[in-house]
Design brief:
Length: 180
């Protein structure tokens, strides 16, 4: 076997092993007094809160932009995304740098908890009881059972790109069509 083929096989094995080690692993964090979890495969790194450059005329939960080692990254406040009031940031406030389908976004959370294993058989669909805040419901895809506690599992794709916002028709384009 040539060295190139050996290298390609070794690289493929490394990628498979890395995917296997991330399977069923979630990083947990606290926001608005609840414990949420995001699949570790979406997490690039965790950084301490840093200065954010405000971007005018964006949603309240979009806090702005940060410069992380020369890369400009938009940052959203998870608490505000869920419809809660903003809290003052402190020394426990962290930014989780995520990569969701090639979109890198920072998520501001109140506190990082731990990395836990949650197997597929321990993930249940969220109950449809309306007890969770409506804004939060649309971002939760499951409830993870961990020992004697539960973790609300976040769908980062829906958190970053709200499907309901994308489906709304553009009011300006409808007005233009009527005028013609």
């Amino acid at each position: 076997m040539s060295d190139e083929v050996k290298d390609a096989v070794a690289e493929e094995e490394t990628e498979v092993t890395a995917a296997d080690t991330q399977k069923d692993r979630f990083m947990t964090f606290i926001t608005a007094g609840e414990c949420y979890a995001i699949a570790i495969r979406y997490v690039n790194e965790i950084i301490t809160y840093q200065s954010i450059t405000d971007v005018p005329e964006t949603e309240d939960y979009v806090r702005g932009l940060i410069n992380l080692r020369g890369k400009i990254i938009p940052v959203i406040d998870v608490r505000m995304r869920f419809g809660y009031d903003q809290l003052e940031y402190n020394d426990r406030t962290c930014i989780i740098i995520t990569d969701v389908k090639g979109t890198v976004v920072g998520l501001i959370v109140e506190k990082i908890e731990e990395v836990v294993n949650i197997s597929e058989e321990d993930i249940l669909p969220p109950p449809d009881l309306g007890y969770l805040h409506d804004q939060v419901d649309r971002y939760i895809y499951g409830i993870g059972k961990v020992n004697d506690s539960v973790k609300l599992l976040i769908d980062p794709d829906r958190l970053i790109k709200d499907p309901e916002e994308e489906e709304e028709p553009d009011a300006d384009s409808e007005d233009e069509e009527e005028e013609e």
